[in-house]
Design brief:
Blueprint: H1 15-31, E1 37-44, E2 47-52, H2 60-77, E3 80-83
Parallel strand pairs: 2-3
Antiparallel strand pairs: 1-2
Helix pairs in contact: 1-2
Amino acid sequence: MKPKTLNTRNNNLSKVQLKTFEKFRRKLKEKVPDYRLTWVHPYSETIIEAGFEPQKGLSYRKTMRAAKLATELHDETGILIILR
């Protein structure tokens, strides 16, 4: 069973945060397609919280790849993505 699709339009993200998150989501879909994000909220101007649905095939290695992508985007854009 797949979790609901993530709707990023009604979550109060700024334009910069939204751009960063969409970029993260595209890269995540390419590199770790099993990693499904279910919610996203702004924490502050430079921090976004993103939650994922734990799944059967989700391993520690895949979670580390997702965290590495978030770190790479932080270096590029200055927006930190916290995975919960």
